[in-house]
Amino acid sequence: MSRIIQLQDGTELPVIGQGTWWVGDNPNQRTQEIEALRRGIELGMKVLDTAEMYGDGLAEMVVGEAIADCRESVFLVSKVLPHHAAGLELQQSLEQSLERLQTDYLDLYLLHWRGSIPLQQTVDGLEQLRQSGVIRRWGVSNMDTCDMQDLLQCKGGEHCQVNQVLYHLASRGVEFDLKPWLNEQHIPMMAYSPLAQAGRLHDELLASDILRGIADELDADPFQVMLAWSIRDGHTLAIPKSSNVSHVQRNIQAASLALSDTQLQQLDQVFVPPTHKMPLDII
Ligand SMILES: NC(=O)c1ccc[n+]([C@@H]2O[C@H](COP(=O)([O-])OP(=O)(O)OC[C@H]3O[C@@H](n4cnc5c(N)ncnc54)[C@H](OP(=O)(O)O)[C@@H]3O)[C@@H](O)[C@H]2O)c1
């Protein structure tokens, strides 16, 4: 995969990574999950996104097993729950995540969403961890424009590397103000659930003749078009989850698909961009 995005600190990352929500929940699928993650890494999807919340640590344990012999070739992202996001609890959460992940550092540590702990306390804690080297960078998730503005008012807040938010064809609200604001600040966006979780909403998306038509024109499938669309601006990294090797292979190919202006306009007609401020969509 040759397409990359650049973090605030200059680090370059491939535009498609791998998610891990629900991974680890079913012990019978463990082998398949590990195989899919490892195949993704081999193919260049080196950004692995997980969280202490996923299966209460079960997802981190699967990731730890998958990367045990290739830690250095992975860009490892985990998230701290908001009520753990300061002081000793933050340190303990990180230590437990590292243990489950069988590593001694994270490449990126995210605040999962904004809770009641003042942002300055979280930034202080994350900066302390960053300076000690146990996390290389930090960022946030599920933060709307006003939250990001508050964050940048904090001392050290300018070190935030990414904002991870829900973004797919049927959830475009961030395009109105959050995305342009992040672009101005040179903070990349990580698009979560870029395939709309392959659920009911996703089925509605797939029913779109436009989406299917574009997929046919590109000799691709609608999932690949959704992924290619989510990373089209060069400032967004998408993290589809898949525990199926053939899906993983198709997901990586989406990085090479280029949607034409005409195709983007056709998609805009069906999946209309926002014309006013919308509350941040969250799962
Ligand atoms: N920060 C947050 O609050 C937050 C919230 C939600 C998610 N996330 C992160 O974002 C990641 C991705 O989001 P998500 O897991 O919610 O949903 P998603 O990636 O949009 O969709 C995952 C679903 O799509 C299927 N799939 C993947 N590739 C496919 C393909 N090429 N063809 C057909 N089906 C395909 C997967 O099934 P198979 O496994 O069978 O392929 C799975 O059922 C999560 O895993 C997590 O790491 C973060």
Automatic annotation (TrEMBL):
Residue intervals of the NADP-dependent oxidoreductase domain: 16-270
Entry-linked Pfam families: Aldo_ket_red
Domain of life: Bacteria
CDD domains xref list: AKR_YeaE (cd19138)
InterPro entries: AKR, NAD(P)_OxRdtase_dom_sf, NADP_OxRdtase_dom
Residue intervals passing through the bilayer: none
PANTHER family membership: ALDEHYDE REDUCTASE, OXIDOREDUCTASE, ALDO/KETO REDUCTASE FAMILY PROTEIN
Protein name: Aldo/keto reductase
Organism expressing this protein natively: Celerinatantimonas yamalensis
